[in-house]
C-alpha cells in the first residue's frame, strides 16, 4: 500500500488496515524543504508500524502544505522513492532495512537515515 496522503487521520487508518491484513505500507511525506520515507512491513515480527513512530494518541501538530508550503519537486522525489520501494517489494528484490526512516533535506541536498524500533506497547502492532 502506498501512502501519499497529507493528514495523520488517513495515515493512521491506512496503518491499521495494513497491520490487520499484514500488508506492507510505503509511507512518504513532504512539507517545505523536508521529506521522509519509510517502509512498514509487519510480515516481520520485529518491524515497527507507523503508530510506533507517530502514536495515534500522541500530540502531533497537523501542519498543512497549503499553509506551510512544499517544494514541488520534493513531492516528485518522495513519490519516486516510494515507487522504487513498491517495485522492490513486488519483485521481492530486497527491501530497505526494517525500521529505517529516510529523512530528506532538500535545502541542503542531503539525506540521512535513522532507526525506528518497534514499540512493544504500540496499540496497533505491539504486544497486548
Description:
The chain has 128 residues and is of the alpha+beta class. 32% of the residues lie in helices and 22% in strands. It contains four helices and five strands, in the order βαββαααββ. The chain has helices at 8-21, 50-53, 65-68, 72-90; strands at 2-3, 25-31, 34-40, 100-105, 110-115. The chain has a five-stranded mixed sheet with strand order 1-2-3-4-5, with helices on both faces. β4 (100-105) and β5 form a beta hairpin.
Give a brief rundown of this model:
The protein has 128 residues and is α+β, with helices and mostly antiparallel strands.
Produce the secondary structure layout:
Layout: E1 2-3, H1 8-21, E2 25-31, E3 34-40, H2 50-53, H3 65-68, H4 72-90, E4 100-105, E5 110-115
Parallel strand pairs: 1-2
Antiparallel strand pairs: 2-3, 3-4, 4-5
**What is the averaged pLDDT score?**
91
Structural class: alpha+beta
Based on Cα principal axes, name the global outline: globular
Helix content: 25-40%
Rg of Cα set: 14 Å
- End-to-end gap: 25 Å
Biggest sheet, in brief?
5 strands, mixed
E-strand count: 5
Q: Helix and strand string, N-terminal first?
A: EHEEHHHEE
β-sheet strand percentage: 15-25%
Low-confidence stretches: none
Tally of individual helices: 4
What strand order characterises the main sheet?
Answer: 1-2-3-4-5
Amino acid at each position: 500500500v502506498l501512502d501519499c496522503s497529507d493528514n495523520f487521520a488517513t495515515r493512521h487508518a491506512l496503518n491499521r488496515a495494513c497491520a490487520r491484513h499484514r500488508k506492507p505500507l510505503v509511507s512518504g511525506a513532504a512539507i517545505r524543504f523536508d521529506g521522509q520515507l519509510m517502509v512498514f512491513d509487519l510480515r516481520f515480527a520485529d518491524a515497527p508500524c507507523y503508530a510506533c513512530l507517530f502514536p495515534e494518541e500522541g500530540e502531533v501538530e497537523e501542519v498543512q502544505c497549503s499553509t506551510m508550503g512544499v517544494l514541488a519537486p520534493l513531492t516528485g522525489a518522495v513519490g519516486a522513492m516510494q515507487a522504487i520501494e513498491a517495485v522492490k517489494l513486488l519483485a521481492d528484490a530486497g527491501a530497505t532495512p526494517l525500521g529505517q526512516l529516510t529523512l530528506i533535506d532538500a535545502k541542503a541536498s542531503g539525506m540521512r537515515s535513522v532507526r525506528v524500533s518497534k514499540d512493544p506497547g504500540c496499540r496497533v502492532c505491539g504486544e497486548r
